[in-house]
Amino acid sequence: MATYAYQCADCGPFEVRRPIGTAEPRAECAGCGAPAPRVFTPPLLARTPPAKARALRAQEASAHEPRVVDGVPPAERRPAPPPDPRWAGLPRP
Ligand SMILES: [Zn+2]
């Protein structure tokens, strides 16, 4: 299945899922029923989230040239949670 994009003049863009190679040059708009022309979009390039794109670039770069570091990265310390007032009533050791 593939997702094909169409542009209705009144309702705006919409997508239709069909088997690959079966896209019609026009599709019926689900909102108003008017025939809408197909628009062409780059496949999956515009929909890649920025964080995923960064991860993919880093993965590709490290496959050919691993990143070299000078030392062990510092450990991340979580801040202590705020004290719970109910702890004051607990017995002390
Ligand atoms: Zn429409």
Automatic annotation (TrEMBL):
Coiled coil: none annotated. Residues 1-41 form the Putative regulatory protein FmdB zinc ribbon domain. Residues 50-93 are annotated as: Disordered. It comes from the Bacteria. It holds the Pfam family Zn_ribbon_8. NCBIfam families: CxxC_CxxC_SSSS. This is Putative regulatory protein, FmdB family. It comes from Nonomuraea solani.
